Amino acid sequence: MSDTLVQTPSGTLRVRVEGPTDAPALVLSNSLGTTLEMWDAQAARFSQDHRVVRYDTRGHGGSAVSPGPYSFDLLGGDVLAILDALGIARAHFCGISMGGFTGLWLGVHAPQRLDRLVVANSAAKIGTAEGWAARAALVRAQGAAAMAELAASSPSRWFTEAFTAAQPALVQRAQSWIAGTAPQGYAACCEALAQADLRADIARIAVPTLLVAGSADPVTTVADAQAMQSAIAGARLVEVPASHLSNLEAPQAFDAALAQFLRG
Ligand SMILES: O=C(O)CC1=CCC(=O)O1
């Protein structure tokens, strides 16, 4: 499987494209501390009838670790650069957590590039500015040691205890993504999250929107998704039996919700 490197003025982005070139495009955007591989199951399924475009968010995986702090103007602009490079005028977009926030940004700032928007396990304001700033400072100060700690504690943020016990290989694979994330890139994304707040803006989102919430998500809660549903006209909300990385913990429910929504 070969990846494409898309050039932007501030570094390259690792992009993987699968599926028929003339099919509707579906962009998949990863969460903090993961890579485009988090979407393997969804890419296998949806590339049957979509041109699936997934990428490593800046600072992650094989994408540039450009100097931070980042912002969602930058991370959203990266998606537009990918669409431009691939000659895609409009796409469906599905992002999870930080990737979901990128989707909200696109819904507010670049709706002309979106067909349908899926925002999974996310919120118009994720966590607190202080919490993200503290995490970024720790990672910048301690580097690899801090990333190892974050990898060790990631199952409690990402998965239910039952899933962690039942699926150790998958959980270890997810931990390998965060353990392999460049500290400077991770910190720069935490700094973007610290500044990110679209609560006053998401009412402007007019593209058809699906919100996916994990019933056991301690990071971005069902209440966060309900608040977005109240703000975004016509938004649908589906709750799946999972914690934060719901596409990994409940792929059948996640994929069914996504497939039904994309069918229109
Ligand atoms: O802190 C985490 O690992 C969970 C998370 C918050 C934003 C995101 O993308 O992941």
Automatic annotation (TrEMBL):
Domain AB hydrolase-1, residue spans: 24-251
Domain of life: Bacteria
Protein name: 3-oxoadipate enol-lactonase
Source organism: Pseudorhodoferax aquiterrae
Encoding gene per record: pcaD
